[in-house]
């Protein structure tokens, strides 16, 4: 993620660098300089430009030492010296920069989730252009990571949260789960234990914290399915934008909903078992029994029955048993132990 416009060859000295050659802005970044209508037009590294007007962003909340604003005068203390204790990210921004405003809430969120593994220092390049010039920055937003008094790496543009997370982990190591991830783990444990109300409350809390969190939404859908509230589950899935319907968590929840609705219409398992006892080739009875067993979390038995249909008559009902197994795998997820078991069983029959 480091950008070609950065020049990290020398230790920060506090003196402006020579004017760098022209460069194209990074994707999602604005060129460093204001339009000709009245602002900064020189590239970083040139002679200092007088500050222009523009409101400063609201400072970090009092007592929040993870995020702060700095000045040229305080840069040595806030960044160079501070980075000897913990890595410091410096966000170079300007009031007129649209991508900067997109990046700010995202990077602040990731830094806070890192719980002290890194700090964030923001520097307005209109008010304080000298440091950006020293570093050869030519487009903003630009984020530089300092560690042990030295700039290490950086990126430009309003990049996604996942990229910022990866960047911080390269600089500071694993940062641990976020608050939302902790709630998700608790919600999954509650659902596995059969505490449907507790699971629903926790998944809802995740959605309140992060409205776009698809894992939280998918978990709530699965909780509704477990409670047999199929209409509510389907309505919730319908709120997911079309472009995100293929998300693995959403796809798995939808598959579980479809299986549960299908199983609810199948009737009594005892009757199906009696039919199989009298005719082992009653594939329709075996197929429906597999669906009921899966609905009651007897997944291994469900897999075994479907594999048995494939073994006895693979092309039955247009390979319905094999296709149903694949739907099970989608619902359970690729790493689930029963998915792995089912794939092994199916392969042993198909390639025998």
Structural class: alpha/beta
The amount of beta strand, in percent, is 5-15%
The CATH class designation of the largest domain is Alpha Beta
Q: How many domains, as an integer?
A: 3
Helix and strand run: EEHEHEHEEEHHHHHHHHHHH
**Could you state the CATH homologous superfamily of the largest domain?**
Glutaredoxin
Number of helices: 14
| CATH-derived topology of the largest domain | Glutaredoxin
Mean of the pLDDT scores?
82
Describe the model.
- This protein has helices spanning 75-81, 98-113, 130-135, 161-172, 179-192, 196-209, 214-226, 230-237, 248-263, 269-278, 283-295, 299-312, 320-332, 337-350; strands at 30-31, 67-69, 88-93, 119-124, 139-140, 142-147, 150-156.
- It is α/β, with parallel strands linked by helices and 352 residues long.
- It has 14 helices and 7 strands.
- Helix 7 packs antiparallel against helix 8 and helix 10 packs antiparallel against helix 11 (283-295).
- It has 3 domains: 30-172, Glutaredoxin, CATH 3.40.30; 179-247, Serine Threonine Protein Phosphatase 5, Tetratricopeptide repeat (Alpha Horseshoe), CATH 1.25.40; 269-350, Serine Threonine Protein Phosphatase 5, Tetratricopeptide repeat.
- It is 48% helix and 9% strand.
- The strands form 2 sheets. It has a 5-stranded mixed beta sheet with strand order 2-4-3-6-7, with helices on both faces. Strands 1-5 form a two-stranded antiparallel ribbon.
- The chain is elongated.
